[in-house]
Design a protein that fits this description.
By secondary structure, the chain is mainly α. The protein is built from 9 helices and no strands. Helices cover 78% and strands 0% of the residues.
């Protein structure tokens, strides 16, 4: 399981680049460098929510902030800022930037979580990372190419809902609502499937 946590994000990154016919590596060095810094800081500083409690809202918040959503949203916001301030020579690919950022994060997490042998941390969390990175990027592309307000509003709504659902997936598995967890896990991967399918 530790090997999966270590290798899943880079494998998904290369798979996405091949499958999406994407040869644009703009911002790759920045993503790896900043991701490494973020991973080291998180390793030494620890989690923001140090006492998530039992099975209530604090556990969901812990999943959102420390484990799943925020680790993906932060690199996407950094990517947006760099794009706005001309930090890239070409177009910004939010998914690739976030995935590259998450490679060192996933490596340090794999080392830290290996002693727990917990499939929720070592398998579900990396899956949710890649689902969020590819899914949010998919809705960003819809937003930038929206032909009218309905499509733009729907894409923004989905971008907000997807991280909430991902954190809820973690909460469901942690609370041993296994069937609900698998359903929510499948829902979070729908944008990934759509992006791969529609691209082809």
């Amino acid at each position: 399981m530790s090997i999966f946590c270590l290798l899943w994000v880079p494998l998904f990154y290369f798979l996405r680049r091949v499958f999406m016919d994407d040869s644009n590596s703009t911002g790759s060095v920045w993503a790896l460098l900043l991701g490494s810094i973020a991973a080291i800081l998180q390793f030494f500083l620890g989690d923001l929510i140090s006492s998530p409690g039992g099975f209530g809202i604090s556990r969901w918040l812990y999943g959102f902030v420390d484990l799943i959503a925020l680790p993906v949203i932060i690199p996407m916001l950094v990517c947006l800022l760099m794009y706005l301030f001309r930090g890239f020579s070409g177009d910004a690919d939010f998914a690739n930037f976030a995935l590259l950022w998450l490679i060192p994060v996933g490596a340090l997490r794999a080392l830290g979580w290996s002693s727990f042998s917990n499939p929720l941390l070592l398998i579900a969390v990396p899956l949710l990372w890649t689902a969020l990175a590819a899914g949010i990027s998919y809705f960003i592309n819809i937003l930038t190419n929206a032909s009218g307000p309905p499509a733009a509003i729907l894409s923004v709504f989905c971008m907000i809902l997807l991280p909430i659902t991902a954190a809820l997936t973690y909460w469901a598995f942690f609370s041993q609502f296994t069937l609900l967890g698998f359903v929510l896990l499948a829902v979070t991967h729908i944008p990934v499937v759509l992006s791969f399918t529609l691209n082809r």
